[in-house]
Amino acid sequence: MYIHQVAAYLPAQIVTNEHFTRLNGLSHKWIMERTGIHERRKAGPGENTNTMALEATRRALAQAPLFAKESIDLIVGATYTPHDTIYTVAHAVQRDLDVADIPVVSVSSACSSLLNAIEIVEGYFAMGKASRALVVVSEHNTAYYNEDDTVAGHLWGDGAAALLISKERLAPTDLRMVDLITAGAASVGKADTAVTLKPVERGIIMPHGKDVFIHACQYMARVTRDILDRNQLAVNDLNWLIPHQANLRITRNVLENLGLPDERAVSNIEYLGNTGCAGAAIALADHRPQIKPGERIIITVFGGGYSYGAMLLKA
């Protein structure tokens, strides 16, 4: 199957590290050294997970004249920061598009949900139940976080992305989805408590950041090697790596583990913070113009809970 178009939406408001210096004394240097984050985006009044998803979807469709909204026969939404857990982000997109009587699915697997959503599309395509799908990933982290939290309050940013996926190639610029691996790792480490979001108790918290760091580095590197091996490819055959945008130190650790130079990694965490399951898709949207025909791209993700995955694309 093929990614025909990908587009992102980012809120206009920028929150710099100086905000957290004023709030709780965390210096710009301290945050930057530990996370690589300089600034992040924050949804404005009237914006939420659903509105950001709608704007990303509109942008994707506006850039894809060959992909009419009437041809969409599957919508998969992904988020762990829902605006509404009943009228989900996927339903909001369906209503906005006014495309009736098609499968509409929402999925949550923490920050790895992008690949789980695409895998759902793969299944529908394989069963012959759909041929043109919309995947939308959106996170409103600042609706849930506690910015006074000096452990994790400064990590989070908001944003959304939409991907138009077809069973057949529509244009020479389409990215072919060569292979996809996802898995849960809830049985390892402190997966059950390392990152939690309990809406009633308010706040995304990360009491075991070291455990997250260790397992994110291990699993993203391992699953990247796995998908390369499964497709008889060497690390040097990989042109671009788009890791989950959680921490710049994690990205650098994964690159070192794989033996990839820094310039092959696509990163946006410096300016967007951790945008959850939307982060890698936003990075793909930003980097898409730089991808040349024949190049190979791997998106590798890791989420709290734990969950992980990798997707191999070829331009």
UniProtKB/TrEMBL annotation:
Annotated protein name in UniProt: 3-oxoacyl-[acyl-carrier-protein] synthase-3
The entry's keywords: Acyltransferase, Transferase
Transferase in keyword set: yes
Chain ranges passing through the membrane: none
One Gene Ontology biological process: secondary metabolite biosynthetic process
Beta-ketoacyl-[acyl-carrier-protein] synthase III C-terminal domain residues: 228-314
GO MF term set: 3-oxoacyl-[acyl-carrier-protein] synthase activity
Alphabetical list of Pfam families matching this protein: ACP_syn_III (PF08545), ACP_syn_III_C (PF08541)
Phylogenetic lineage: Bacteria, Pseudomonadati, Bacteroidota, Cytophagia, Cytophagales
Start and end residues of each Beta-ketoacyl-[acyl-carrier-protein] synthase III N-terminal domain: 107-168
Domain of life, per lineage: Bacteria
